[in-house]
Inverse folding.
C-alpha cells in the first residue's frame, strides 16, 4: 500500500462498482448493513506515524535540553525513543477517532436492530478499522472477530490488490451477519447506500 495513493486511484470506478455489488450481495442474505469507507488520511499531519514520532522525539530532546538539569546521555536517548514510539500510537488513535465519527455520519447507528458494520480504510496511516453496532457485539461467537476482517482487508492492500482484500472483508462481514441475523420475510430492507464512501 503506497501512502500517496488517492482513494480514487486505488479503487477506480469499476472496482468501486464491484465492491458496491459485493455489499449488496452480502446484505441480501441478512438483516444487517455494511458500509465500506476509504479515506486518504485521517488528519492534517501530512505524514504517517513515524514522522510524527520523529517530531515528538526532537521536541522531547529540545525540551529536556532547555528546561531540565543536565542528564546522562542515555536518558536523552530513552526520552527520544519514547517519542518515536508515541507517533504510531497517536496516528492509530486518530484513525479510530475518525472511524467512530464516520460510523455516526453514515447512519450506522440508525439501522433497525442496530446491525450496522463499518469497514474503514485509512490509506496514509495504513490502517483498517471495523466497527459494529451494539446489536452485533453481544452475539459474536468465539471464532468470530473483527480482527479477522481487518487482516483480510490489509492482506489485499499489502499485496497491491485492494479490490480482492476489501471484497474478502465484505464477504466475511456478510457471513457473520447471516449467521446471527439471517434475512426474514418481514424485514429485508436495504437501509443504507451500498456505494463505497470515498473521502480524499
Amino acid at each position: 500500500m503506497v501512502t500517496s495513493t488517492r482513494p480514487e486511484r486505488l479503487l477506480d470506478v469499476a472496482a468501486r462498482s464491484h465492491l458496491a455489488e459485493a455489499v449488496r450481495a452480502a446484505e441480501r442474505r441478512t438483516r444487517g448493513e455494511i458500509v465500506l469507507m476509504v479515506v486518504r488520511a485521517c488528519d492534517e499531519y501530512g505524514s504517517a506515524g513515524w514522522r510524527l514520532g520523529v517530531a515528538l522525539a526532537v521536541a522531547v530532546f529540545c525540551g529536556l535540553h532547555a528546561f531540565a538539569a543536565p542528564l546522562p546521555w542515555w536518558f536523552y536517548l530513552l526520552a527520544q525513543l519514547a517519542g518515536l514510539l508515541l507517533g504510531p500510537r497517536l496516528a492509530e488513535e486518530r484513525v479510530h477517532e475518525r472511524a467512530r465519527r464516520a460510523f455516526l455520519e453514515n447512519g450506522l447507528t440508525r439501522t433497525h436492530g442496530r446491525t450496522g458494520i463499518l469497514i474503514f480504510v485509512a490509506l496514509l496511516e495504513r490502517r483498517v478499522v471495523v466497527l459494529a453496532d451494539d446489536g452485533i457485539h453481544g452475539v459474536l461467537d468465539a471464532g468470530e472477530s473483527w480482527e479477522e476482517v481487518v487482516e483480510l482487508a490489509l492482506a489485499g492492500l499489502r499485496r497491491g490488490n485492494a479490490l480482492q482484500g476489501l471484497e474478502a472483508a465484505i464477504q466475511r462481514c456478510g457471513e457473520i451477519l447471516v449467521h446471527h441475523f439471517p434475512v426474514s420475510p418481514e424485514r429485508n430492507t436495504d437501509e443504507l447506500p451500498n456505494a463505497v464512501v470515498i473521502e480524499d
About this structure: The chain has a mean pLDDT of 83.
